[in-house]
Amino acid sequence: MPSFPTDSPAMLNDLKVANRKSVLQVFRTGDVYDASEVSALTGLSRPTVMKCIHYFLESGILVSRGKGKSTSTGGKRPEHFSLDESRYYICLSLWPQETRVHLYTIRHDRIASRNYTEPLPETADEAGHRTAAVVSDLLEEMHIAPSSVVAASVSVPGTVDHETGTLLFSSHRPNWGTRIHLLDDLHALLGAETPLFIENAGKMCARPYLTDPDVRSKRVLVLFTTWGLSGCMIERGHILNGRNSLIGEIGHMIIDPNDPEPCGCGSYGCFERLVSRSRVNRILHSFSRAENQETLTIPEVFARSAGGDPSARQALHLLAGTFACALRNISLSFDPDLVIFQGDYGAADAHFETELRNQMADFRYLPTSHPFEIRFDPRPLHEMDAEGSFFALDHLFFDHGDHYQS
Prior knowledge:
This protein is of the alpha/beta class.
């Protein structure tokens, strides 16, 4: 009698997991669906979809939203489901001159934000205490138990070790030392099992671009420019880090070793010092004969340049030369298809872009027309950071294998 192959238990379990992932992927949009809609979107049968939905109802990831409208033929009203909005993400930014905290539901609804304008604490222990204190205060204010937080992130200046969840070093607080455990107090508040994610601020602000299909198909350099300068290098949808998380720390690329201004990293002539707000104002003041010289932000300098101000344009000529030098060096090792400016220099005017392209044209290895695409993104960095934090936590939470295993 012939024997026929049957699916092994392992194969059946793999199929069950795959089906659950497909169903939950639909709900990750944050919208409300009934089983028939999910079936149409996934290609799975309605009974299979209902089994998956009941599994997630039992685990608490999905909730029933009640009955919908009757069908056009007068059939039974379908039951609707969505992600449980009583589960939350905490996104915290611990930046040099401010601390921000955002509270999201896992449906992507931001329900609270707080901003504290105070500099980084002098010690690493104080910084760790602050992360937990601002989160605790917000949760208490919103009457939310810490156990309802399913994942949290911290965005910081400096290099991080993702495997150990530690801040390796920050040039903004070199006295903190190395391998700093900033997350310990947050773990104590939220529970040791709550997933926590620590990330360099520049890379966190670049994460929203990973949702753009055009960006995901390219080699991309994102330039984070504000209280510091760093880069995020994206290789076709993947952020590059390196063993010591130094990939992208281009603000500490030495452009002029004879420059007298020291950097927090211990060197002189670092890229970020040469294009900083303080340096820009010193350059402007050297061109101006006015007795009462203003202190301008970099976006204000771009605005004056756009209006034809000669001092602003002279300053931008020098700054474009510095960026051209840095991008030339980066091109030799990364060769991007696209360069995106964020933050202060995301407000650049057309004159700066022309100067930048003209000064890069002298490098014969790069095509003289368009060596790479350049975009200027003027959106606020704190919003980019919040969005990047949400997307990071969304992947951290929903990609966890335990959600799909019986």
